[in-house]
Amino acid sequence: MITHHPSLLRLRAPLPAGLRHGTSHALLFTAAAYSPSPPPLRLLPLRVAAGGSSLVGPDGGNRATPPQPGAAALDFARSNFLPLALIGGMTLGLLDPTLGCLAHKYSLSKYSTFGIFVISGLTLRTKELGAALQAWPAGLFGLGSILLFTPFLAQFLVQIQFFPREFITGLAMFCCMPTTLSSGVTLTQLAGGNSALALAMTVISNLLGIMFVPLSLAKYIGTGAGVSLPTKELFRSLVNTLLVPLILGKVARETSKGIAEFVDGNRQGFSVLSAVLLSLVPWIQVSRSRSLLLSVKPKAFAIIVTIGVLLHLALLAFNATTLQVLSCLKQKEESVLTRKEYARAVILVASQKTLPVLVAVVEQLGGALGESGLLVIPCVAAHINQIIIDSILVNWWRQRDQRSTSAK
Fold first, then answer.
1. Domain ranges of the chain
2. Residues whose CB falls within 8 Å of the CB of residue 403, separated by 6 or more in sequence, listed in order
3. What is the pTM of this model?
């Protein structure tokens, strides 16, 4: 009797030799009827290596799977795509700024930000909007951290004696800015956080920043310097680069079931596209500032970069710790601050600062607080470093979630 299987072809165990050669058919039938049944058929998976050979050993056991060439490198690149894209963009900008300067000339960074928020609208589920409204305490804390706490740190930074002075002044100005326009939302999506809450904090903090930023700069840094912001231009820019593409993406999702199903079925691909668009911003900024970056003494640049990294780590620690403390105060029921999707959105968005608004402010100052290029350099480095640090944090969160899911 032959038992068929898609992967194997195995015969049942034969009768003993003495019964096989018997002359009586009755005896043979009786022996076969009363002989112990053969062991059940054990199905062995058939695996094929890269070269096409079976990985089932001659004794029926499985041989060790040989590692495929480049598989480990591909897996690492897939798991760390965003930081690798950012570092690659920075390296390209330093090696040859021609393409980056050309991209800036045609305002590619504005189009990339527009694309990021179109994707945010396409991937934004309606239930996430309702969840964001329920998480208003987390959003309120995030706005307070962005607009009140971090600008307060600027007065301590300006006390540091440093040369060139513009480096410290620029970093202190960076503390007074609202959150990033796109990277906080993109990283929140990658981390599995509530993207609607991240979007709400991004839009509201940037709109309120039109009023808060001049006050913070005048109070902590530029007292008597006549700091002002191009209010109408900034407001129009925020509407065009945030609200309009977000609404377009959301309307397209809600009006077409096919689009919604396609987006939901390819969320990972859209996340990768958002990461690519995000990496264009530091590439363009490094390309534009390459000559200034190369003119700065390496030691001074390394010190100011270290200060910027420590500042961002301090903001991450402050926001994470404060969320934990506030959640412990509400003991009777579960606080929204303890939920992973809300906490991650607040930690990421509230710890980042935007570069485009700072550049607009520096241009309006007209050299009142120092050389414009030297003011911007440490902020470019801080902007890039915060995205790299947060992308590493997001990767760590995702790997921890995967391990937790596998354990279940």
1. 78-400
2. none
3. 0.68
